[in-house]
Amino acid sequence: MGAKQVRSAAERLTAAVKTYDVRGLVDVDLTDEIIEAVGAAFVDEINAEGTEVVVGHDMRDSSPRFAAAFSAGVRARGGNVVAIGLCSTDESYFASGSMDAAAAMFTASHNPSVYNGIKLSRPGAQSLSMDTGLGAIRDRAIRYLESGIPTVDAPGTERSADVLSDYARALRAVVPLEQIRPLRIVVDAGNGMGGMTVPAVLGEAAGLAALPVEIIPLYFELDGTFPNHEANPLDPANLTDLTRAVIEHGADAGLAFDGDADRCFVVDENGDAVSPSAVTAIVAVREIARERESDPAARPLVLHNLITSRFVPEIIESRGAEPVRTRVGHSLIKAQMRDTGAIFGGEHSAHYYFRDFWGADNGMLAAMHVLAELGSQPLPLSEFSAEFSPYRQSGEINSTVDDVPLAYARIVEAFQGRAQFDEMDGLTATGITPEGEPFWWFNVRPSNTEPLLRLNVEGEDAATMEAVRDEVLSLIRA
Asked: Which residues are catalytic?
């Protein structure tokens, strides 16, 4: 056995900087020294000397000290820290937008407790990606790790701020819930930040008036070790407790938040998942109606990524708006929200974006839209949401693949003449079907970080979807 390779701080940081954020193992990829250098580089890259930088963090054990290290780097380069403490990621976006200040949020979202990371925003909650500043921040931070962080003549200051009440009040103004019928809702916070934001927004913890919504809490205790289950509702195994509680309490619906509470998943009164595509359609209809109230002639834009159900663009068009198909990825969609003036955007991964939230994603707002719509009509959620899920989807299926181009070639050869292909994001095949035959489409995309191919299939009916799914899987795994 050879000696274990010791990585430099620069190598660790390079491994931790991903396409859309910084994420890595605590005290392996990310250390206080590395985080401080990133804070200093952040100020330099976005010209934040003399301006305020919001710093917030989730409930992970390492988050407070990483936030403190980042703040030290910010102050060294002349940035003025606004420490908002414990918060959700969308609360961090609210602070960035309402203060028009840059922001850093310390979280590893749904990842296990041994991970942490940083989501960085320019003023106005504008996200950073590898191509729009994150790569340059990494390179600057590496230089500081090698040569030290020089302190400016007038180092920055630090003040504390509590934005939770203002955040809750702002969300209630966008989606009023005071007049809906009484609802009983189970919420699984997964020991993440939803345990703090849900009582503030949907309850009275922030000093706001009571709503006609009874909240039955699951795992609201903030605990970054995630003692009950992973805070990753995308994995059906993590919805088991929520499903059981919804049925046990005779609830109208269930909500599950991920660790940093920027994504929300919905289950109906039977404990069955309401697909993010259905949620996207429900919210889109409401946002379009809200826009057309002020301008009946408006034809607003609504974004949807290419994995969402075909029903999403269909219903957007039927309500007098224009659907815009996008690639997958929150930084990319936030940029398109800003550039196009779109009123709303939805992804299959349960990220939901709002023009009236600076184009940023907010799972709580999406959940409130679902509650508002559910509470304004008499049907149970299972019947109501079925109207927004007429087709059958496979969900995302991952396969380990060593040679992605070879797998693509097998798929293209097998479906040649039966499908039209595009490569907007991965490989999408849309069936060429005779009139009256059920439609189908599928998309395969490689993972950015693992040797995986991700497959999503939709068909007009279950038999069509399953047949296409099984054929494509056999080609991928050949």
From this structure: 109
